[in-house]
Amino acid sequence: MKKTLSILLAALMLLSVFSVMSVSAETAQGAPTGFKTWKALFAHAVSGSNDGDAWVAWQSEHNEDFVVANSSVKYFFLPSSTNENKVDVYNAFSAAVTVNGTEIGAGKTAAVSFETGKDYSVSAEGKTYTLRFMRSGAEAAIYVNNSDADGNGTELMSYLNVDKGRSARATGAIVTPDGKVDNTVIKKIKGRGNTTWGKPKKAYNITYDSKVSIAGMTKSKKYSILANYQDDSLSRNRFLYDLSDAVGMPYASDSRYVDFYANGFYWGSYQMAEKVEAGSSNLVNDFEEEDYLSEDGQSVNEDFPFVAEVDAGAGEGDYYVSISSGLKVTIKTPELAPGDVGYDEVKKYVKDKFTAFYNATASRTKDLSEVADVDSLATIYLINELGKNWDSGVSSTFFTYKPDENGTYKFYGSPVWDYDNSLGNAVGVLYELSDMGVYDYEEYTGWWCKYKGKSSRTKSSGNIMNRLSVNNSVTAAAKTIWKEKFIPAINHFAGTAVNKEIGKEFYTADEYYNLIKDSAAMNYTSGWLLNTGSWICDHSSLTTATYDAQKNVYSVNKYATSYASDFEGMYNYCRDWMISRAAWLSKEMADEIPTEEEVDNKGEESTEPAPTTPAVTQPTTENPTSGAVTKAKNPIKVKVASQKKLTVKLKKGKKATTKKTTLKAITVKNNKGGKVTYKVAKKDKKKVLKLKKNKIVVKKGAKKGTYTIKVKVSAKANKKYNAFSKTVTIKVKVKK
């Protein structure tokens, strides 16, 4: 068992002793009753409330293995519902304590005044602690409590986190900034996610006993609470879910920034989203899961609606089918188990229908309106293209099969889901990128979906999003939808052309930031890391771009913007990458070829009025760390071994027998500008040569002869140096 799991119980308490006493409602008015307490101070989400569930203990910073960093420094991580300068504190120690001049008796609750950012000294049972208060601005707080999840005294999270298949009931509370507390019982909470489940900050599916609303969301029973552990902006999923809603995507999952608490422990900043599930009280609300059954419930209807997910990782325990291409499709609704009525019939029906749909997408000229709603296909393609979503067409790619307004069953591209691995967040798998012929994945420029899944060996793709991206009917619809819906929405997000109607579904970047910044501060102070893996991109700088639709001008800033290595910097990088990506796509989809400009943008606040017509532009910023630009020198020098023919002798025969035959043809001197990348020109990538770091590699199977390739050598800008690129031509002669 992983070390993380073995110490979860200790992590939950972050104190030396667990479960000193179980407090009842009679012990003290306004005391924790939803879970067992221990020797600590506890704060309630709402002043003057008698609720027993919405309590959180003070706790220390922990590392990724939940080991306490400094047990003498304690934090109260408070939700947005608390008063700005006063909070109800319960004392679970055996003697009275004093906090900021207020004495709290043992087993008693008192209102304590505080200031965020200020240190308070607290003595309790012979120990002295430093206490700090932090307060969130998130849209809600979610509390989940059960101190006996398995009937043997195991507290909830320690029980759940051992195995994703485990589930439990719980009490809890949904608390909004206005102080309203909803104590609807939780029917079931269980783990969710594939790769993300293996991370220390985990995600869960929550089913309530009855429909509830989370901070103004449509009432539903089923939600997914997303950790966004691998997204240092905590916002990539939120941006693309809300954008999908704003541009008319069917079943776009509504969501809210929330703080998540369990049994008195603060787990961090999360995103509470509508779960992808059918039913009148769920996200896909125009048909029921049971609609596949006949009226008597004993047989399967001739036609019925379903929700399916393209998921390469489907396997044992999943309800899925494989079509002839090897594509795996998980049946999300109806989700049946062996022995259920229609188990095999539903699988056959889904397989037949999805195979027909998949086969239709193979033709670029096929009018997909015969089998699908083209506008929704175009929209889900644009969302994946905008995000350069690594999982596009591989996993979390959903399609809904249902009757249209005329009663004809068709596929709809929806809902959208799982975009933490997008919007410039990931470096991608190098060998896969090379095989597809993609060399600009991290950058906001360059097409993505039309290459995703395409093999340079087979020149074909089994990736359904790839197929949609080159279908004539989809691309024609996409161009119109981009211009009419996406550009206005992105302009609203950027703050350059705010639209009240769009703002009902999709906020401005500044509005999102104000909602999440304090919650993020608590999240990262508690111990979670900003950079969570080697696959995360370098987010230190970006040369941003804009597009003016009125003038038909695409502009790239002359100087790069630098981003601080804190949450604000990482959030701003994500924001700017998304806006710059939209600018590039707008240029590419413009009716005429736009004029390109290089602008001398030093980050000053613009005094120009907002454009009256849609234009994808960058917002101004008052943040000196993320908006500052340096006029930097460029020290990088590139030297090619020879512009003449470079000779490689093969070991034997007329063909290369090894991939290790190399030429150190390119050298980079005085490289202080950051990571250097090498890219073979697209027209040359199919030739005998390829690149491995700064080496020219002769491919296995190469024939003798003379080869010419062009190589782009580039480095990103940083705080000291400008971005740099240079294309060099190399000729290589391969002989025996």
Give your account of this protein's structure:
With 736 residues, the protein is an alpha+beta fold. Helix content is 19%, strand content 27%. It is built from 13 helices and 37 strands. A hairpin with a 2-residue loop joins strand 5 and strand 6. Helix 9 packs across helix 12. The chain is globular, with a radius of gyration of 28 Å. The N terminus is likely disordered.
Alpha-beta content class = alpha+beta
How many helices in DSSP terms?
Answer: 13
Tell me about the largest β-sheet: 7 strands, mixed, barrel
Mean of all residue-level pLDDT scores: 85
**Main β-sheet, spatial strand arrangement:** 10-11-13-14-15-17-16
Outline type: globular
Keywords:
19% helix, 736 residues, five-stranded antiparallel beta sheet, globular, 13 helices, seven-stranded mixed barrel, alpha+beta
In short:
This protein has 736 residues and is α+β, with helices and mostly antiparallel strands. Helices cover 19% and strands 27% of the residues.
Spell out the blueprint of helices and strands.
Elements lengths: L2 H4 L1 H6 L27 E4 L10 E3 L15 E6 L7 E6 L5 E3 L2 E3 L4 E5 L5 E6 L2 E9 L4 E6 L10 H5 L6 E9 L5 E2 L3 E7 L10 E10 L7 E7 L9 H11 L8 E8 L2 E10 L31 E5 L9 E3 L5 E6 L9 H18 L13 H14 L9 E7 L5 E5 L16 H7 L27 H6 L2 H23 L5 H4 L5 H18 L14 E2 L2 E4 L4 E5 L3 E2 L4 H22 L6 E5 L15 E2 L7 H4 L9 E4 L4 E5 L12 E2 L2 E4 L6 E5 L8 E4 L2 E4 L6 E11 L8 E12 L1
Parallel strand pairs: 3-9, 10-16, 25-27, 30-37
Antiparallel strand pairs: 1-2, 1-4, 4-7, 5-6, 8-9, 10-11, 11-12, 11-13, 13-14, 14-15, 15-17, 16-17, 18-20, 18-21, 19-20, 21-22, 23-26, 24-25, 24-28, 29-32, 31-35, 33-36, 34-35, 36-37
